Automatic annotation (TrEMBL):
InterPro entries: GTP-CH-I_C/QueF, GTP-CH-I_N, GTP_CycHdrlase_I, GTP_CycHdrlase_I_CS, GTP_CycHdrlase_I_dom. It catalyses: GTP + H2O = 7,8-dihydroneopterin 3'-triphosphate + formate + H(+). HAMAP family: FolE. PROSITE patterns: GTP_CYCLOHYDROL_1_1, GTP_CYCLOHYDROL_1_2. Keywords: GTP-binding, Hydrolase, Metal-binding, Nucleotide-binding, One-carbon metabolism, Zinc. This is GTP cyclohydrolase 1. One of its GO terms (cellular component) is cytoplasm. It comes from Flavobacterium frigoris. Residues 40-217 form the GTP cyclohydrolase I domain. Pathway: Cofactor biosynthesis; 7,8-dihydroneopterin triphosphate biosynthesis; 7,8-dihydroneopterin triphosphate from GTP: step 1/1. GO terms for molecular function: GTP binding; GTP cyclohydrolase I activity; zinc ion binding.
Length: 223
């Protein structure tokens, strides 16, 4: 019989997500960003000392502080709802009723199983039912949900759900094609493979609309 630790290792090594939302505690924002940075700094110092690193060396003495700031303010900044971009929408005055596709949006995220990078591109589309959203806002939504410990399936769903809520329509689709460094640089060490996930809402569940979207993006992603 497997112990809990073995089960959790197996889930992480096989990149299996267990939660449809990011698993945050209720007290996640009870302390300030500065307090989090100070706490993480001490933890990184402990990790580096345990690994045998000399923290008096000029090259590495600032690493704990740099890593702590990077975690809180950059690569995991999307955990904080205060950083959520305002998804302003506007009336579709020009009555454009066809598919709008924003492709090749850069994705920099972090795998929540090994805290290694996920690097790829997102392709997002919607069909207006009376509202439109600024193109840069689509990029910002992708960036916001990427800046968390993530699994790619959840990230894809979150992008679609956020745009559906902002636009007031189910007619939203997203495809992400990304490399996972936890696969490419460790374990199986397969540097060529990438992972493709998709979420199709509303009219995009129709095979013809889905095919049109996929023809637009062609999944010829280059890394």
């Amino acid at each position: 019989m497997k112990h809990n630790e073995e089960i959790h290792d197996e889930i992480g090594d096989n990149h299996i997500g267990s939660c449809a939302t990011n698993p945050l505690r209720e007290d996640a924002f009870d302390i300030t960003d500065d307090e989090k940075i100070e706490s993480i700094k001490k933890d990184v110092e402990s990790i580096l000392r345990t690994l045998g690193m000399d923290l008096t060396d000029d090259s590495i003495k600032g690493t704990p502080n740099r890593v702590a700031k990077m975690f809180v303010k950059e690569i995991f900044g999307g955990l904080n709802p205060a950083r959520k971009p305002k998804a302003s929408t506007f009336d579709n005055n020009y009555k454009y009723g066809e598919m709008l596709v924003e492709k090749n949006i850069i994705v920099y995220s972090t795998c929540e199983h090994h805290l290694l990078p996920i690097i790829g591109r997102a392709h997002v589309a919607y069909i207006s039912n009376g509202r439109v959203i600024g193109l840069s806002k689509m990029n910002r939504i992708v960036e916001y949900y990427s800046k968390r410990p993530q699994v790619q399936e959840r990230l894809t769903m979150q992008i679609v759900q956020e745009l559906q809520n902002a636009l007031g329509t189910k007619d939203v689709a997203c495809v992400i094609d990304a490399k996972h460094l936890c696969v490419n640089s460790r374990g199986i060490s397969d540097i060529e493979s990438s992972t493709v996930t998709s979420e199709f809402g509303g009219k995009f569940k129709d095979p013809q609309a889905r095919r049109e979207f996929l023809d637009y993006i062609k999944l010829e992603t280059k890394f």
